[in-house]
């Protein structure tokens, strides 16, 4: 009666939808139920998050039901629309407050195909040409006879499953269909992503059906297992390549490339091609002429600095060298992390040193949760040019650090070079 709660008629299904006005990686949703009566009406409500406003957003991918996460839901799902709906009965829907937390989704996608590191399996294997691992062998062939596609028997339902070996926030899945015949067999296939390997992963939450996102699926779903299945079989399932992209997850926190949100600067700028921000533009190009690399003048102790804009416990830093020439120029560069921006951050603590790096090569440094706002790359004690084609920084906010510190070593598999 305070006029601070929403209330629908007895709809089938009732829904309440929030348009965030742009796309976010939604990390949490908090729902406050009515307190004066009728609390049971919300039982079974679903949280749905996605890109479609149609039908009130009730067809978007769903988080777990209301009763699983009272009163807070950990999501890690990408979307513009957040919907609360009760799917299974005519019901009134009353909400007294909905809070949504997340980060704006900047679509600089990591270019690492996680599938190449995974372990594949399938419901059955049709013959010796159709092994499950053929869908993650990196081949572009779409001819089944080439031995680079999978093939199940006529199962009900058929499935192919990828074990990523640890938990990721899966941002994209790309599926390549058979090209020599039978393209229609995959119609209606579903992409399912979650934490359960049981039944081939076919009970995990699903992304939209295959026909909606050919050939690429925007997911934003958290899980270790990625499954492709045709639920309405019996049917054969053939896949010629599956690529999976995403961000590592520690606990309920998605480890994103913090550099994409930062502000960069450097000791000097060689020319218009070599701006400091080129090293955090998300590009995989290592050719200086592409305008995707930074470059200083011939400075005494040249430096490049990244301001993360707030303090983090930095777990990893990845540095990509120029690929068209001059790879030796980066040898001896030091990674420094700390709280001081003075002198380009060159007086902050040392995370690691680039002892040697090849053309276009990327090296990774385990920084073991060093505290800092500024990440600096500097070549100490020499007069040299500093050129960087990409810098990636990973970590967790300092207020979350104690919760996840024990996990850093098991998740950060790369060490200093």
Automatic annotation (TrEMBL):
Residues 1-104, 111-251, 255-399 form the Fucolectin tachylectin-4 pentraxin-1 domain. Homotrimer. GO terms for biological process: regulation of cellular defense response; regulation of complement activation, lectin pathway. This is Fucolectin tachylectin-4 pentraxin-1 domain-containing protein. Signal peptide: none annotated. GO terms for molecular function: fucose binding; metal ion binding. InterPro entries: BG_Antigen-Binding_Lectin, FTP1, Galactose-bd-like_sf. Acts as a defensive agent. Recognizes blood group fucosylated oligosaccharides including A, B, H and Lewis B-type antigens. Does not recognize Lewis A antigen and has low affinity for monovalent haptens. PANTHER family: F5_8 TYPE C DOMAIN-CONTAINING PROTEIN, FTP DOMAIN-CONTAINING PROTEIN. Keywords: Calcium, Disulfide bond, Lectin, Metal-binding. The keyword S-adenosyl-L-methionine does not apply. Belongs to the fucolectin family. SMART domains: FTP (SM00607).
């Amino acid at each position: 009666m305070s006029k601070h709660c929403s209330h629908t008629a007895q709809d089938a299904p009732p829904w309440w939808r929030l348009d965030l006005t742009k796309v976010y990686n939604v990390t949490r949703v908090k729902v406050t139920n009515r307190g004066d009566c009728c609390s049971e009406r919300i039982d079974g409500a679903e949280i749905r998050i996605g890109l479609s406003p149609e039908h009130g957003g009730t067809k978007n991918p769903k988080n777990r039901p209301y009763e699983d996460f009272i009163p807070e839901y950990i999501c890690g799902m990408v979307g513009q629309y957040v919907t609360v709906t009760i799917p299974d009965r005519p019901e009134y829907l009353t909400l007294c407050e909905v809070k949504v937390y997340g980060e704006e989704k900047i679509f600089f996608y990591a270019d690492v195909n996680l599938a190449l590191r995974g372990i594949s399996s399938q419901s059955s294997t049709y013959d010796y040409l159709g092994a499950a691992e053929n869908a993650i062998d990196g081949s572009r062939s779409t001819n089944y006879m080439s031995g680079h596609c999978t093939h199940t028997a006529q199962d009900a339902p058929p499935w192919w499953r990828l074990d990523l070996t640890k938990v990721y926030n899966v941002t994209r899945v790309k599926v390549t269909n058979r090209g020599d015949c039978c393209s229609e067999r995959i119609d209606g296939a579903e992409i399912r992503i979650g934490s359960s390997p049981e039944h081939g992963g076919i009970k995990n939450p699903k992304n939209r059906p295959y026909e909606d996102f050919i050939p690429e699926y925007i997911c934003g779903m958290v899980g270790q297992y990625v499954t492709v299945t045709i639920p309405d079989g019996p049917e054969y399932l053939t896949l010629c390549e599956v690529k999976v992209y995403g961000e590592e997850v520690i606990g309920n926190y998605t480890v994103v490339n913090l550099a994409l949100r930062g502000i960069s600067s450097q000791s000097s700028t060689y020319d218009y091609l070599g701006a400091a921000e080129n090293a955090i533009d998300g590009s995989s190009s290592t050719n200086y002429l592409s305008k995707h690399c930074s470059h200083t003048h011939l400075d005494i102790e040249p430096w490049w600095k990244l301001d993360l804009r707030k303090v983090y416990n930095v777990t990893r830093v990845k540095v990509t060298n120029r690929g068209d020439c001059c790879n030796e120029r980066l040898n001896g560069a030091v990674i420094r992390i700390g709280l001081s921006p003075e002198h380009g951050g060159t007086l902050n603590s040392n995370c690691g040193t680039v002892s040697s790096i090849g053309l276009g090569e990327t090296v990774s440094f385990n920084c073991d949760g060093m505290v800092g706002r500024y990440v600096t790359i500097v070549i100490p004690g020499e007069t040299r040019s500093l050129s960087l084609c990409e810098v990636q920084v990973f970590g967790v906010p300092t207020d979350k650090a104690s919760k996840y510190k024990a996990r850093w070593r098991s998740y950060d598999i790369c060490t200093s070079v």
